[in-house]
């Protein structure tokens, strides 16, 4: 057991989250740190400074995944890891991902300050590009680390400006072959990610700790709708093959499909729309859409996708447009390791904190770490369930409780503690 001053921890971590939020491409309270941009690099440097001040050793891999390590008594035994991300989508808040990185560093610092030498080493990982903003694919760092994606597929990625992943990576100062990012199964004895819930359940039920049993299966697709452009005044309506009106039908079909499966958990979103040429007096000739589709139940997600495919076929037929669909990712759900769930609950009980088992509807790096290590997650409440918005909020005392449970969980997972004099 480790005794923590929760009030002090809450103040410190809250101040660090506030400082990290100042590295942002968007004006406060919005936060934006897109992969390999100046603010992403500043955010990484800031958390690295916190980790090094806490006495942790840093390693950065070729894609920028950053590992902060506290050595245990047995340095060769598989470590216990935690971590999350500091990149932030446009118009984000300050808690998504950051709580798991800054909170992880705070947990390891508290363990070190208590002069506890864990039996195994403990690590905090700040993952590269959990958010899909720049290259359209989320969790690039953890996918590569776990072998869920090949280096060739990462090298083939291009951003919206057509820049190749490797060029952007090199310009950001990351070197070495992507092949070196992969970690073998067995490198970590366990992975536990601390994250804000991003949903309303914990706050509504006044429960401070969520114990995540599974992570919903995410999928995403890119769609190119090709119509015929022309003069917005001169081309009469019967002659049109407008790519945008066709795309609008697809957007509605995604919503309809997500609402029509047997599962209440199916969600479908079109969050990216790019219209070409994007002039008010020009009929759109090309539209790029990106669809996000998820469910905790894979069969229901597949049902929704089948409905979207039917809608695509119909819209092509009826509107004389061509639609090209590309799958970006179709991932299975992750199931948490029962022994880690029990450990999180035991650590919470030791702190007199109530818990609730629940799924994660958002995806996280834990989705991919689960492929190479027994994995689970700890959730802390999100005020009104708000996330991916500037008004995202988790109260400092709730973050501190999450950090305390994380510290206890990591120590229990590392098993026997050797106390320094
Ligand atoms: C992560 O940010 C997600 O979109 O679930
Ligand atoms: Mn996010
Ligand atoms: Mn996140």
Automatic annotation (TrEMBL):
Q: Which residues form a coiled coil?
A: none
Is tRNA-binding included in the keywords of this UniProt record? no
Q: Which cofactor does it need?
A: Mn(2+); Zn(2+)
Recall the GO molecular function terms of this protein's record: hydrolase activity, acting on carbon-nitrogen (but not peptide) bonds, in linear amidines; metal ion binding
Per UniProt, where does Zn(2+) 1 bind? Answer: 85, 96, 195
Instruction: Enumerate the UniProt keywords alphabetically.
Output: Hydrolase, Manganese, Metal-binding, Zinc
UniProt superkingdom: Bacteria
Q: Which residues form the signal peptide?
A: none
**Note on how the cofactor is bound:** Binds 2 Zn(2+) ions per subunit.
Q: How does it assemble?
A: Homodimer.
Family according to the record: Belongs to the peptidase M20 family.
Report the protein name in the record: N-carbamoyl-L-amino acid hydrolase
Its taxonomic path starts at: Bacteria, Pseudomonadati, Myxococcota, Polyangia, Polyangiales
């Amino acid at each position: 057991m480790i005794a923590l001053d929760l009030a002090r921890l809450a103040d410190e971590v809250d101040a660090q989250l506030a400082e990290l939020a100042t590295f942002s491409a968007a004006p406060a309270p919005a936060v934006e740190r897109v992969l390999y941009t100046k603010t992403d690099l500043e955010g990484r440097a800031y958390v690295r400074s916190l980790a090094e001040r806490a006495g942790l050793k840093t390693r950065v891999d070729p894609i920028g995944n950053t590992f902060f390590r506290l050595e245990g008594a047995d340095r060769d035994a598989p470590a216990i890891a935690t971590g999350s991300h500091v990149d932030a989508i446009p118009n984000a808040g300050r808690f998504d991902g950051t709580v798991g990185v800054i909170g992880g560093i705070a947990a390891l610092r508290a363990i070190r300050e208590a002069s506890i030498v864990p039996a195994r080493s403990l690590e905090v990982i700040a993952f590269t590009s959990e958010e899909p903003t720049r290259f359209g694919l989320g969790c690039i760092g953890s996918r590569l680390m776990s072998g869920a994606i090949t280096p060739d597929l990462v090298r083939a990625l291009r951003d919206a400006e057509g820049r190749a992943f490797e060029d952007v990576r090199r310009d950001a100062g990351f070197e070495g072959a992507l092949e070196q990012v992969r970690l073998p199964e067995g490198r970590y004895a366990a992975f536990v990610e601390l994250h804000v819930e991003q949903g309303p359940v914990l706050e509504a039920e006044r429960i401070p700790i969520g114990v995540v049993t599974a992570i919903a299966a995410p999928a995403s697709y890119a769609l190119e709708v090709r119509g015929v452009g022309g003069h917005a005044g001169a081309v009469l309506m019967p002659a049109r093959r407008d790519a945008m009106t066709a795309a609008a039908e697809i957007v509605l079909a995604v919503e309809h499909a997500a609402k029509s499966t047997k599962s209440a958990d199916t969600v479908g979103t079109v969050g990216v729309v790019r219209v070409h040429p994007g002039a008010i007096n020009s009929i759109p000739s090309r539209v790029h859409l990106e669809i996000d589709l998820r469910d905790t139940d894979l069969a229901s997600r597949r049902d929704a996708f089948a409905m979207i495919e039917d809608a695509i076929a119909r819209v092509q037929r009826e509107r004389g447009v061509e639609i090209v669909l590309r799958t970006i990712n179709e991932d299975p759900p992750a199931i948490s390791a029962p022994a880690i769930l029990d450990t999180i609950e035991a650590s919470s009980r030791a702190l007199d904190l109530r818990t609730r088992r629940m799924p994660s509807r958002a995806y996280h790096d834990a989705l991919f770490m689960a492929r190479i290590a027994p994995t689970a997650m700890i959730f802390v409440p999100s005020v009104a369930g708000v996330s991916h918005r500037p008004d995202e909020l988790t109260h400092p005392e709730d973050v501190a409780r999450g950090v305390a449970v994380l510290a206890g969980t990591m120590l229990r997972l590392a098993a026997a503690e050797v106390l320094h004099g």
